[in-house]
Design a protein that fits this description.
2 domains, Rossmann fold, alpha/beta, 14 strands, 6-stranded parallel β-sheet, 8-stranded mixed β-sheet
Length: 415
């Protein structure tokens, strides 16, 4: 197959899980003998056209064209009320999509006689380009939904929600990342017959307990202020309401009553930074909580997973939850939010012989504390569940499996 991919993030420009997903999934397509042409956002001094790991990548430059001057002529009234920064971002996204679709349709196909079988877009950020390109060359359109505006924000922008619905309506197939997300999309009015579920994947060689030696692990713990006789709880993620770092912090007094030698490490960036800092001070937990307000490079993140004893992700909304998969691949038992829209619930087996963690109510600090304490108090249980977690990832979440499952959906569209 010859695939055209509209994805806002692509290496070396990665700001979140979408860029990581695009990097690995396109690599799998290349391994399987397919051709992929990516259209991504231009940043810094990246070339406008190059080959990245066998993937031809186009990044149209949008920063020198102030589309914001013209946006009031045709954008919805709602966007006009956004902040200047928000309007500029919307303008950049809009222009990236228009220029990318034009380049595909007019340059690559009409001028260079390129063959394209399927046009693929990821989330609303690439939806406009995908719709225009698909219509322009009369080829099938697949829309990947990694999250929704309602889920990310609780309500959010009507404009973004409208773009998501239009893309879903135009798509021949919709691929989403969990059955929880499938049900969410159906509830929003998306056509169930179009929706297919394909999980996210993980690089199981890069995320492996063997990559970090015991000596390195001790050094990382020492650097975080974790003594040899202390147990490390790790949270990695955006510091925003839906991820639940604040609820985990509220659970710490309960955990410390049961397991006094526990220490919590919270890593991430987001609007809750000041809240978390103030709560640590109010609760007098300065010696028991380490706050690292930073975006971790992958190698450092792997080291943090290796250094931890358990990982806790009490998300209130999580279409999939790649940090959980990463922790499980590193052989760590996990405690995860399992209310509402939760792909974490599908990743983590919470009972039986294959149990690898616990499901909790992310709105209840005492529930978080109950199961975190249970793991922290039982080393044998931690080892068993961590081993099961690694095996679960090898069975269900390798990029090879995810790549094949995705290609099957694409082939279904062509057939």
């Amino acid at each position: 197959m010859n695939l055209a991919f509209f994805v806002y993030e692509f290496p070396p420009y990665i700001v979140g899980g979408l860029g990581t997903y695009a990097k690995y999934i396109t690599r799998e397509f290349i391994k399987e003998g397919h051709d992929v042409t990516v259209f991504s956002m231009h940043r810094d001094e990246f070339p406008t056209r190059d080959i990245y790991k066998g993937v031809e990548t186009h990044r149209p430059i949008v920063r020198n064209i102030n589309i914001g001057l013209l946006l009031p002529m045709f954008i919805p009234e709602e966007v006009r009320t956004w902040s200047q920064e928000g309007r500029a971002f919307f303008g950049e996204v809009f222009l990236y999509n228009i220029l990318s679709a034009s380049k595909l349709v007019n340059d690559l196909i009409r001028s260079e006689k390129r063959e394209i079988d399927i046009v693929v877009s990821h989330d609303w950020l690439g939806s406009i380009g995908g719709i225009l390109a698909s219509n322009g060359i009369n080829k099938p359109f697949v829309f990947h939904v990694h999250s929704t505006e309602e889920g990310r924000t609780g309500d959010g922008s009507e404009t973004v929600k409208r773009l998501e619905r239009i893309a879903a309506g135009e798509a021949d197939r919709i691929i989403t990342v969990s059955y929880a997300m499938r049900d969410h999309l159906v509830n929003l009015g998306y056509e169930e017959r179009k929706i297919r579920v394909v999980y996210n994947g993980i690089d199981v060689e890069r995320y492996s307990p063997e990559v970090i030696s015991e000596e390195e692990r001790r050094k990382i713990r020492a650097g975080l202020g974790i003594r040899d006789d202390e147990l490390m709880i790790l949270f990695v993620g955006r510091l925003t309401w839906v991820k639940g770092a604040d609820m985990l912090l509220q659970a710490m007094p309960h955990i410390l009553r049961e397991v006094p030698n526990s220490k919590l490490v919270i890593v991430g960036l987001g609007e809750q930074q000041d809240l978390l800092k103030n709560d640590v001070a109010k609760m007098g937990l300065e010696d028991k909580v380490v706050l690292k307000f930073e975006f971790l490079p992958e190698e450092k993140k792997i080291g943090y997973y290796a250094a931890s004893d358990i990982c806790v992700f009490p998300s209130k909304y999580e279409p999939f939850g790649i940090v959980c998969t990463e922790a499980m691949a590193m052989g760590k038992p996990v405690v995860v939010g399992a209310r509402g829209i939760s792909g974490l619930r599908e990743q983590v087996v919470s009972s039986g012989e294959k149990q690898c963690g616990f499901h909790i109510n992310p709105y209840d600090p005492s529930d978080i504390a109950k199961y975190a304490s249970l793991l922290l108090s039982d080393e044998e249980l931690r080892i068993k569940l961590g081993k099961n977690a690694r095996e679960r990832v090898l069975e269900m979440f390798t990029w090879e499996k995810i790549g094949r499952d995705t290609l099957r959906v694409y082939q279904e569209v062509l057939d």
